[in-house]
User: Fold this.
Amino acid sequence: MSTEDIPCRCSPHSTGVANLLFAHILRYMVFCRAEYAGKTESRGMDLSYLEIKGGRPLDGEIEVQGSKNAVLPILAACMLGEGICIIDNCPSIGDVDDTLEIMKILGCRVERSGRTVRVDASGAGGYEIDGMEAARIRSSVLFLGALLGRMKRAVIPLPGGCAIGARPIDLHLRALGRLGAEFSGEDRIVARAEELHGNTVHLPLPSVGATENTILAAVQAKGDTLIRNAAREPEIDELMDFLNGRGAEINRLEDGSIHICGGKILGEIRYRMQADRIVTGTYLLAAAAAGGSVRVRNDSCCHLQSLVQLLRQMGTEVDCRDGETRLASNGRLRPVAYVETAPYPGFPTDLQSPVMASLCRAEGKSRICETIFENRFRTADELRKMGARIAVYGSCAEITGVGELHGASLTAPDLRGGAALVIAALQSWGCTAVSGTAYIDRGYESIERDMSLLGADIKRYR
Assistant:
C-alpha cells in the first residue's frame, strides 16, 4: 500500500485508541520512508514529506527570502561581460541550485556561502546545456539569450519545470531572430548568430521570459534595441537594474517599452536581491486563512497591491509601510466574487493556487479565473481530499466555502500548488501529510522553518 493511501491522523472526534493506533502507523510510515530512501537515494527519488497539524493561528514576524523570479535571469546575466559578480540575499532554493550547476557545466567558477553567491565567468567557454539539467528547470531557457550574447551560439534542450500548462518558447525564438539569431533542431534548440544587431522587437504577448531573453541578448548586440509590449513585472526591472549597475544602458519608457543601448562593456558588481513578492504573498495568505496576526518583513509590498486589495476584500486588516507588511485575520474569510490572473500589475498567476486554498473556508462562493496557465487548477483535486468544494469550469473555478477542512495525505502537483496545500493544512482539523516537497523547495527556502517561526506545527520527514 502506498503511504499516500494512509490518512495522516484521525479526526479530532476520534477515540483515544484510534489516535494511539495512528501514532504507531505514522511512526512505521516514517521508518519505511527512511529505509526506502537509503536504498533509492542514488536514483534521486524524493521521499520527504511535510506533516502539518492544523488549527493553530499564526503569530509573529518573519523575513522573506530573495526573489526567485528575479535571481534566475540575473544569474544568467552573470555570464555576460567581464569581472566577478557577487549576489547577496540569493535564496537557497532548488531552482537556484540547478541554475548554478548549469553555470558550472558551462565553465563558470561558482562559490556559495549562505545567501551570497560569487560568480566568475571569465573561463566560461561552453555553449551546450545537458538535457538532464535543463529538464529540471524552466529558467534554463534564459541561458539562450545569455549564451548568444557571450558565445554567439547555444544548444539547449527544451526546458522543463512544473507541468502547469503550455509555455511555448516561440516568442523567445521570434524575438531573438529579430536580433540576428538563427535556429535549427527538432528535439532541442540549436542557435547561432554571426553577429547580434539591435532592432525593434514587438512581443505579441508581454511574456516575462521572452522579455528577459531579449534583454540578455540585446545588451551585447551592436546598436539599439526597442522591446514593445514588454513585460512589466518588477523582476524585469530588477534585471535591468543589475545590468545597468554593471555598465549597461537600459531604460523603461513611459509606454512600458524597454530601450537597450547595446554593446556597452559590462563589469563587476555586488548586488543585493530584493524580497520575493510571491513568497511574501504566500505567507500573508497563510495567515489570512489560519487566522492570527503577522508581520512580514520585505521590500516588495509595493509590488503586491493587487493582493493587498484582495486580502482586504476577504476581510483581513493589511497595513504596508517601512519595509514590512502587517496582517490580522480571525481565520474565517469573506468570499471573493471574482478574481482573474493577469500580467503585472494584474493579479499574479503564481498566487492563484494559494488564494484558492485560502478561500476554501470562506463564508460563501468565490470565483477564480486563470488566464495565464491552463493547468493551474490541478491543485483543486488535492484540496477536495480535505473536504473542499471546488468546481472547475474550463478556465474558471468556483469555490464554495465549507465549515471545516480535515487532514489528508496529499501530493504537491507543482511549486505553487504545493504551497497552497500547506495553506490548506494550516487551517484544517487534524494532521496533513504533503509529499512532493521537491516542488515546494524549488521556490521556498524552507517553508517549514518559516511557518514554524510563526507558530505553526509543521515538520519535515526525510
Residues 16-40 form the longest helix (25 residues).
